[in-house]
Target: ABC transporter ATP-binding protein
Amino acid sequence: MNSAKSMLVLDGVTRHFGDVAALQDVSLEVGEGLTVCLVGHSGCGKSTLLRSIAGIETLDHGSILIDGVPVSGHGVFVQPEHRHVGFMFQDYALFPHLSVRANIGFGLSGLARSERDLRVADIIERIGIGALADRYPHMLSGGEQQRVALARALAPRPRLLLMDEPFSNLDRGLRDKVRLETMSIVRDLGMTAVVVTHDPEEALAIGDMVALMKKGRLVEAGSGERMYDAPWTAYAASFFSRINTIPATSSAEGLQTPLGRFPAPALKEGVPKVLLRPQAISLAATGISARVIERSVLGELEELSLAVEGLTAPLIMRGTARHDVRPGDEVFLQVNARQVMVFPDDDAQD
Ligand SMILES: Nc1ncnc2c1ncn2[C@@H]1O[C@H](COP(=O)(O)OP(=O)(O)OP(=O)(O)O)[C@@H](O)[C@H]1O
Model:
C-alpha cells in the first residue's frame, strides 16, 4: 500500500436482511487514487456493500467515511446525492430519450449552464467520445454505452467512483479492451474506485487492491499479486484458480502425501491440507508415477488429468508445454515444492 490518505474507510460494516447476514463486520481502507475490487461468489454481499457506500442501503452497525467525512453509522446518514460518489450501473442505465451530451450533463443541474457545458465538454474530450456526443443511447454499441455511462458518472467530479459489474454486459472479446481503456481513464484522472465483480481474473487484472468476500464477511484483502501468490486462506487460494487438494498426514519429518513429503509449516492444530496449483506440476523422466486420464488443449494451455495412487480425485496439471500423451499412458510427475501451499484443514474452501 502507498502512503496516500484514505479516501474510503469501512469500519465494522454490518447489515442484515431478516435472517440473512448480508454484511458482517466488514472493515477496509482504500487509499486515494486506488482501485479496489470487491470479489466473491453470488450472494456474498458485494452489491450490498457497494450500495451501502453509495447510501442506497443503511447499516445496522459500523460506519463509513468518504474522504474523511462520516456518511453512515453512529447516528449519521448522508443522503446519496450528498456523498459525492459516482455510480456506474451494470446495465449503464442511460436515459434513452436524452442525447449522449444531455445524459452526461444530467447530474450537473446544480451548475450554471456555461459551467455545465464546460464540464461536459471536458469529460467528453478526456474519455474520447466527441464523435458520439449528439447520438442517442440506442445508436451506441455496448462498449460506447459503457464509456458514456463512465463519463456521466465522472462528470460531477465525484470523490469516489462506484462500479457494479461494469464490464459484465460486454462480449468476451470487447470486454478486455474496454476494461483496459476504462481503468486507464480512471487511473489517469486519479479517481478512487470501488469495482464489484464476480470474476476472479477481472479482480486480479484491475484492482490495485482486491477484497475477497464470502457470506457477508471479508475473507482477506491485499494486492492481487499477494493474494494469488501467497494467499492467507485456502478459500482465497482456491477462489483465484483451479486447485488440487491433497490429503496429508503430519509426521516428525514433515507432511506425508501421495505426492511425496513436504516441509510442514507451523500450524496451530488440526490435520493440514496441501493445495497445489495445476501449474506447480510437470511431467519428468522420473518422479511420482501417474496415469493419464485425459488431455485437453485449452488454446495457450494444455491440461492433463492424472490418476495418482492414494488420491481419490484426479490431479489436474496445466502448462504451456504440449505433451504427446494419451489416456492410459504411464507418466512421471515432478512437483515444484516452492508452489506448495499448506493450510489448516478447518479453513473451509466452500
Ligand atoms: N433487499 C434485500 N432484501 C432481502 N435480502 C437481500 C436484499 N438485498 C440483498 N439480500 C441478500 O443479501 C445477500 C447478499 O446479497 P448481495 O446482492 O449483496 O450479493 P452479491 O455478492 O452482490 O451477489 P450477486 O453477485 O449475485 O449480485 C444475499 O443473500 C441476498 O439474497
